TrEMBL record:
<keyword id="KW-0647">Proteasome</keyword>
<feature type="region of interest" description="Disordered">
    <location>
        <begin position="1"/>
        <end position="73"/>
    </location>
</feature>
<comment type="subunit">
    <text>Forms a homooligomeric, either hexameric or heptameric, ring-like structure which stacks co-axially with the proteasomal alpha-rings.</text>
</comment>
<dbReference type="GO" id="GO:0000502">
    <property type="term" value="C:proteasome complex"/>
</dbReference>
<feature type="region of interest" description="Disordered">
    <location>
        <begin position="179"/>
        <end position="204"/>
    </location>
</feature>
<feature type="compositionally biased region" description="Basic and acidic residues">
    <location>
        <begin position="192"/>
        <end position="204"/>
    </location>
</feature>
<protein>
    <recommendedName>
        <fullName>Bacterial proteasome activator</fullName>
    </recommendedName>
</protein>
<dbReference type="Pfam" id="PF10759">
    <property type="entry name" value="BPA"/>
</dbReference>
<comment type="similarity">
    <text>Belongs to the Bpa family.</text>
</comment>
<feature type="compositionally biased region" description="Basic and acidic residues">
    <location>
        <begin position="58"/>
        <end position="68"/>
    </location>
</feature>
<dbReference type="InterPro" id="IPR019695">
    <property type="entry name" value="Proteasome_act"/>
</dbReference>
<dbReference type="GO" id="GO:0061136">
    <property type="term" value="P:regulation of proteasomal protein catabolic process"/>
</dbReference>
Length: 204
């Protein structure tokens, strides 16, 4: 907000002149010789938020990169399938062939998930996914339940993290819009011309 130069009376002008000549004081930090804040510099006593905004933006970019998913629809399909299989394991007493089949599906599901995830997410999933002990045959029903429940929980946490990142980006966009002066165009947006407002009219 730019100060009105006519808002101060003669007494204010004379007092400012006396102070400048008597004490030899130059313009304050962040102010022009006229006493107004210099463009691009915060006024005296006004906290600067550039560092905080940059740090917050860097953290959000890092989090967004870690949650990068190249095939979100595929990840959603596999997640739904794994959750349904977990319900089947809970409600069905599987025989040896069924447990062997489910163990293969579990491994194949993880392989397919890794095709649509970022490297950071793939590494995390590989660290958490413990292989079944196949020395005594296929895994037990309890082992399959634990493995499936672990994968379902991990996927639900992934989806929650994505939703949180999207909400944070939307909040940052709203904050940026609120800080813009009236009539300013957000970065990356195309300014609207008078022709756009009038429309094409009767003749093109």
């Amino acid at each position: 907000m730019t100060a009105d130069p006519h808002a101060f009376g003669p007494a204010d002008e004379s007092r400012g002149s006396t102070t400048s000549q008597g004490m030899g004081a130059g313009p304050a930090n962040g102010e022009s010789p006229g006493g107004e804040p210099t463009a691009g510099q915060p006024a005296v006593g006004e906290p600067s938020t550039d560092g905080d905004s940059s740090a917050q933006g860097g953290e959000e970019k890092e989090e967004s990169r870690e949650l990068d998913i190249s095939s979100p629809a595929k990840v959603m399909r596999i997640g739904t399938m794994v959750k349904q299989l977990l319900e089947e394991v809970r409600n069905t007493d599987l025989d040896e062939k069924g447990r062997e089949r489910l163990a293969q599906i579990h491994r194949r599901s993880i392989d397919e998930l890794e095709d649509g995830l970022s490297k950071e997410l793939v590494d995390e999933l590989e660290r958490l996914d413990l292989p079944f002990d196949s020395t005594d045959g296929p895994p037990t029903t309890s082992e399959l339940r634990v493995a499936q429940a672990q994968l379902v929980g991990w996927l639900e946490g992934l989806f929650h993290g994505i939703q949180t990142a999207i909400m944070a980006q939307q909040a940052m966009a709203r904050q940026t819009m609120a800080q813009l002066p009236p009539g300013a165009v957000p970065p990356g947006a195309r300014p609207q011309s008078d022709r756009d407002e009038r429309g094409p009219g009767n003749y093109l």
